[in-house]
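Can't paste images in this forum, so I'm doing it all in text. The chain is below; anyone willing to post the predicted structure tokens underneath?
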Amino acid sequence: MRILLFSGKGGVGKTSLAAATGLQLSKLGYKTLVMSVDPAHSLADSFDLETSLFNASTGDPYRIHDNLFIHEVNIQREIKRYWSEISTYIISVLRTTGIGDVESEELAILPGMEELSAMMYVNQYRREKSYDVIVLDCAPTAESLRFVSMPTTLEWYMKHIFPWQRGLLKAVRPLANRVSPVQLPKDTYFANIQSLFERVEGIGEILQDPMTTSVRLVTNPEKMVLRETQRAFVYFSLHGLTVDGILVNRVLPAEVTDVYFQGWRASQARIIEEIETYFAPVAVKQVPLFTQEVLGVERLEALAGVLYQDREDPSLVTRTETPYSFEKVNSHYEVHLRLPFAVKGEVGLFKKGDELVVQIGTLRRHIGLPTSMSSLSPTKATLANQLLVVEMKESTNG
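Text version of the structure:
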């Protein structure tokens, strides 16, 4: 099963592009699910579905046609289905503090519940081989990164904290419940957590396998949007996911010649050139601004026709290597960059703001640095077996 993850800044058009990709895949004969991982769902709106009709599906995948289904995770339904023990305990604790019933129920929806529920479904559908392709319409960038980092965090918690915490509370619960104003969680609470973890176990490896999962970053040709796309690229790479495409949405078409848009056209041209330079060799696609809002199957099909020429297959694996990676080695950090055609005499590098700039002949690669490395400076570089390793350390300049 292939997983295509669409992410980007809020409002750039992720949902429309994810929906159009789902339509293209279903046309090619793949049984496809487009799933919204964004708490502010707009997937059903993108297909222009009647709200009452869509809600009648009770939160299960809704059939658009034979090969295409959409799914918006309903957190209230998920709480009743999977989170009941956890939610009940949190609500009881909140009520003890004097918070009202309605407020307690709202506050009991913890950050990450929706993303984790979506992850459980992806893992379930993978195990059951329910679909050929799942297209994930993710929340804006920060929540997307929480989504992909959650498996690693959960695994660490389950291995190092959970057994100790469960055992300790089991031992002290009888005594503590006599004197504590708040009842400690029952063992069924921990059994619920164990069950939830088993449902997502293994998903981290799936997300980091480029033969299964590919990230498509959606951006607009605007400087502020581009900066967030660059940060997303860095952090997806940091988490081991492979970004294989950049989709530049809402580009002014060539036929827009009105003087009012001349400044916009010049600005977009500069940003698109910067995008292509920064993300090379990752493929960059441009999607024009349509004359009207993209809503409903007919307009989504028109969008798919522009995005995927002829019978182009969006599920094909086009990249299996991350363009660069970061490592900590003893007291310093390293940036690893694949340079298949470079020779030693051609490579130059310098730091510009929070970016490491690598120059190969007349070409440049800009590598955004994680926060932990943004204050460091390059001190040494070695090129061997087509791999450039740049050593990063604290600057000794006063």
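The chain is about 40% helix and 25% strand. Residues 2-307 form a domain with the Rossmann fold fold (CATH 3.40.50.300).
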